[in-house]
Structures are given as C-alpha cells and as structure tokens.
Specification:
The protein is of the alpha/beta class. The protein has 4 domains: 170 residues, Rossmann fold; 75 residues; 167 residues, P-loop containing nucleotide triphosphate hydrolases (Rossmann fold), CATH 3.40.50.300; 153 residues. Helix content is 48%, strand content 11%. The protein is built from 26 helices and 13 strands. It has a 7-stranded mixed β-sheet, with helices on both faces. Helix 5 packs parallel to helix 6 and helix 22 crosses helix 23. The protein binds adenosine-5'-diphosphate (ADP) and magnesium ion.
Length: 585
C-alpha cells in the first residue's frame, strides 16, 4: 500500500485527497490494512470476497462509500452493488455531507470514502456550500475527542479548492509496481493456460524483457486489457501490441503528441560531444541497466542559437535509443482558468508516466515557463506553481522517462529549472568541419550526390562561416531552385524533357551563399547574452554553465570568439568583408 496514505490513516488525518486511477485497488488496499491481522480471510487479502467481508465486519473499522449514482453505502453494499438491488440513500452530495457531519456514537473507527466528487470541489462560486461543509467536517472530525473519524476524497482528477488547501492532505497514489504487474500478468496467463488443453497452445511465462518494461506505467486494469488482447491476437505477450496501446492513450489528451521521426545521428552534422554523452547513456533504462543499479539520467537541456539543430538532434536521439518521443506542449498546459494549469500539468505527467519508457521532449521550454519571475503580479503565481510541480515531478519520478528540453532564450528560463537538468549543452553555430558535414547531409537529403556533381562540402564550409544548420539547409534548397531556373532560361523553347534533371553546380551554391545574411546579424543581443551566460572556463577548455556542444579544431577555437566579437561589434563592415573573403577563396 502507498506509504503516505498508510501514514495519513494511522495518524487519523481528518481530510485526505487521494489522486489515483484505480479506485478498486486503492479501496481494497485501505480495507486490507484493517483486516490484515484478522485470521479468517482469503490468501490474497483481496478485501472483496465473502471471507474478507466477514473479516471487515469483525475488524474495528467501519467504512462508508459515496458515489453520486448510488449515494452513501456501507462498504459491503458497495462491494455487492451490482449483485443486489440497493436503494440509493443520500444521493445528493449535500445530503451525504450532512449525514457524514452527524455524530453517530460507535465504538469503531469510521472512514468515509467519497468517489469522484472532484466536480463539486472545483473553485467556483456554485460549489461554495460543499466546500464550506467539507471544511466544517474536517474541523469537526479533528476536534472530536470521542470518535475517530476521517474522510478520504478519491478521484483520478485533482481539485483542491483554495479554502481547503490548509486542511486537506493530497496524496498521489502511484501506479502499480513491477511486482504487482507481474503478478497480474501471471494470473491471467495461468487462467488462460488452464483453459487450453494442448500443451503446445500454452503460453510460456518466460516473457520478453521489453514486455514487462512496456507494461510499467499502466494501471492493473489496463494491464489486464492489453494482456488479454495480446493473448487473443498473438498467442503471446507482444511488445508491439503494448506500444500501440500506449500510443492510443495519447489520443485522449491534446497536451502531448508522439513525434514520429526517421532521423538518426547520421542525419545530424557535428555536435559530437552531445552525441557521445547520449550514446554513453543509451540503455541505462533497460531492465539490465535498472538491475545493475546504474544511476538514472533524468534530463538534458540543449540551449543555444536558433536553427543550429537542437530540435533536430532531439528527434534523432529518440530513434537512436529506440524509445518513443513524446512532445509536451508547455504553452497548452497553461490556461487562464483557476487551477486548470496545475491540473493540466498533472494530467500530462500521469499520461507520460503511463507511456514510459519514453523520451519526453519539451521543445522551446521557455515558451511555457517564461515570465515566472513576475508571475506573482501577472498570473497569481500559476506559472511559479507549475514550475514547482515540474521540479517536484522531475525529482521524484523513478520511472524510465528521459527529458530532453530545448531553449532558445535562456534569459526567460527560471534558474532553478535550468540547474535541475543533469547536463546542459550550449549549441553554438557550427564549426567549419560541422558545416561541411551539414552540407553533405543536406545535399544528400535533396538527393544530390555531391561526388558525382563535383561539389566540395569542405570548400563550401570554408565559405559559409557564421551560418547555422538551418541556413545551410536553406542555401542548398535555394541553390537547387537557382540551378533549375538557370536551366529553364537556357532551354527556353526547347524540349521540356531537358528540365527533368537539374545539374547543380558548386557555383550555384556559392552564389546563394554570397547573398545570404547570417541570422546572427539580426540577433546580436541574444547571442551576446547567451555566450556570456555560458561563460568560458580556460582550464577546462569548456563552458562554465553549459558544455559546448560543438567541437572546434585548435586553430578554430579563438576564431569563433573572434568571429562573434567581430559580428557583435562592427557588423556591417565585417559582414561585407567576410563575404568578399568568402567568395575569393
Ligand atoms: N547539425 C545539423 N545537422 C543537420 N541538419 C541541421 C543541423 N542543424 C540544423 N539543421 C537543419 O536545420 C533545421 C532547423 O534546425 P532545428 O533543429 O529546428 O534548430 P533549433 O531547434 O536549434 O532552432 C533542421 O530541420 C535541419 O534541417
Ligand atoms: Mg527548435
């Protein structure tokens, strides 16, 4: 059972809010706690069978359960609800609250469990009477010296009105452990095996390790559904079936989406330090990694100049690791309605947990979190609270979820968030060698074999200093259009067939390069801030607050700073000079 809830029950907290997906399991866990020392009950201590129900009667606890559809019921009535025709009592929430508030002297401890009443606890004026009544109950239970009574609100959605925040403890009921999942799966497989006669049709319990890893993060209910489907369709537990099922969970939320990508590290030019860092950590999530107790890496922040391949690399790493890439849209988390942003974030994290092992991709993270510094003035602290929730979740999460976040404007990101990432890389404009690699990749992407066309990526790299990866991509695209245009003019009036193959030449690319004004020119303040923020450690030969993501040759190292300095100081003249220099080479 969840330790926090066990403690809250032991110390008789008058009002507890439990957020959890599996109400049967949670209620059974609570009941089992009270009957565990009673002799006569079933082996699994299920809390629901006839023996267990008898044990509950013998125990020193009395449990009542409320549902809007059936009103307030005794525990036994709740268990038998669908077998016996039970007339609802106190069906209105207001009536139930009044009933609960009444003191009926009993020598037993009393526990009220309210299911799915979160709608009555949203912070709206129409709910004011319920909220007040609940506060009365909490205070009354607390001060009552003669009776031990407590109330548990249980729902999959969190709704704690501000007025109750100081009276109510919130507990997140974790998803089933690996052991609980294995127990469930084994039970289903046993049932299946005993139903088939021929030995060849029986299912082996030696499951593929990725199956058990894949089931992690699902509820027992979902585990059962997927196990049964998998057995029916494949006559075994199938990892792909589990993956597909997890994908279908995503369709239920608009905060998250799976990013489909076929990019690999080979499609990313340069950034070797980041690739090395990621490659070393590949497999930390697997069953073997977890068994070997390899410390889990939780997250990586890529910060830097726009268009230098941060998002591109994130996508490639997901493929490299063979894990799904789930993108969280931070700006969709925020909502102007009170409490909804926090609730959205909670919903997103619960869904992400159910999809683990996975990579959580938060692109341009500053877009959601920016403005937290002034949040007390602008949004009543919502941003600050969501950041707080994010940090707590990041810290406490033990599921295999790797977070990769990108950021273009570090000045908008709260420092406490930045410091939390295991590693930070500063993605700078590419070095000469990296530019050559990017030219190679882009030419290949647009199906131009540079070897056959006599184009030299190395020479192009020399002539494209200061350009970002995105700009190189744009240059290659524009050059192909240029070549096509040239051919069209040349072949005017001739057979259109001559246009179907376009001969791209190096001078087409050079011509486009010559006219390209680097984006660096238009965002000098941002870049200056970024470079200064990262800092430079002369001993380490690397950045202070983030590692440099781009490896430069010895003789290039000063070059980049010089280039940046030149760009940041004199600009116009420099750019012109650079173009001239470039075209002469
Ligand atoms: N290092 C790189 N290797 C290959 N392509 C790159 C690289 N950097 C940028 N690109 C190209 O530029 C585009 C924009 O890059 P992106 O990752 O969106 O930049 P950022 O996220 O840093 O703003 C990519 O889709 C890719 O085509
Ligand atoms: Mg990006």
């Amino acid at each position: 059972m969840n330790k926090e809830l066990a403690l809250a029950i032991d110390v008789v907290r008058p009002l507890v809010y439990v957020v959890g997906e599996e109400e049967y399991k949670i209620v059974s866990d609570i009941v089992s706690k009270f009957i565990k020392d009673i002799d006569k009950k079933c082996d699994t201590n299920c809390g629901r069978c006839t023996e267990c129900l008898k044990a509950v009667e013998k125990s020193d606890i009395e449990i009542f359960i409320y549902k809007t559809t059936a009103g307030l019921m005794s525990y036994k009535e709740w268990v038998m609800e669908f077998e016996k025709d039970i007339k609802p009592k106190f069906q209105l929430f207001q009536e139930t609250l009044s009933e609960i508030a009444k003191v009926t002297p009993t020598n037993k401890r009393t526990l009220y469990i309210l299911l799915d009443v979160d709608t009555y606890l949203q912070d709206t004026s129409s709910n004011i009477n319920y909220i007040r009544k609940l506060k009365d109950i909490a205070l009354n239970f607390y001060h009552d010296q003669n009776n031990i009574r407590s109330l548990i609100v249980l729902s999959s959605e969190l709704a704690v009105p501000r007025k109750l925040q100081r009276y109510e403890e919130v507990i997140f009921y974790s998803l089933p452990t690996s052991e609980e999942i294995a127990q469930k799966v084994n039970q289903i497989v046993d049932d299946y095996n005993s139903s088939v006669s021929s030995a060849s049709k029986k299912i082996s319990k030696e499951y593929d390790p990725s199956v058990m890893l894949g089931l992690k993060g699902l509820t027992l209910f979902e585990t059962e559904q997927i196990t049964l489907t998998s057995i029916k369709r494949h006559k075994k537990l199938c990892a792909d079936e589990i993956k597909a099922f997890k994908k279908s969970i995503l369709r239920k939320t608009n905060l998250l989406e799976i990013v489909e990508t076929d990019l690999s590290f080979e499609d990313v030019g340069g950034m070797e330090p980041v690739k090395d860092w990621l490659s070393k950590r590949e497999g930390v999530w697997t069953e073997e990694g977890i068994k070997a107790e390899i410390p889990q890496t939780k997250g990586l922040l890529l910060l830097g100049i726009t268009g230098c391949g941060k998002s591109h690399l994130s996508k490639a790493m997901a493929r490299q690791w063979g894990l799904p890439l789930i993108s969280l849209n931070m700006s969709r988390v925020f909502s102007p309605r009170v409490g909804e942003s926090e609730a959205n974030f909670l919903k997103a994290t619960k869904t992400i947990e159910s999809l683990s092992p996975c990579i959580l991709f938060i692109d341009e993270i500053e877009k959601g979190f920016a403005g937290s510094q002034s949040s007390t003035f602008s949004d009543a602290g919502t941003t600050a609270r969501v950041i707080g929730n994010f940090l707590t979740w990041y810290q406490d999460n033990e599921l295999p979820i790797f977070i990769i976040a990108t950021c273009n404007s570090i000045q908008y990101l709260p420092p406490e968030l930045v410091s939390r990432f295991d590693e930070k890389f500063f993605v700078n404009i590419p070095s000469t060698r990296e530019r050559a690699a990017i030219f190679d990749i882009c030419l290949k992407r647009y199906k131009r074999d540079w070897r056959k066309l006599n184009i030299s990526p190395t020479q192009l790299a020399d002539k494209s200093a200061l350009l970002t990866g995105r700009e190189i991509d744009q240059v290659v695209k524009a050059s192909i259009v240029e070549a096509f245009y040239e051919q069209r003019v040349k072949n005017k009036g001739k057979d259109k067939k001559d246009l179907t193959t376009v001969d791209l030449r190096q001078d087409h690319i050079e011509k486009v390069l010559f006219n390209k004004v680097p984006i660096l020119k238009t965002m000098e303040d941002d870049i200056k801030y970024l470079v200064q923020w990262v800092g430079w450690d002369e001993d380490k030969k690397d950045g202070i607050r983030a590692n440099y993501a781009n490896r430069r040759e010895e003789d290039e190292k000063d070059d980049i700073n010089k280039l940046l300095n030149d760009v940041l100081s004199s600009k116009e003249d420099y750019i012109k000079g650079w173009h001239n220099k470039g075209s002469k080479k």
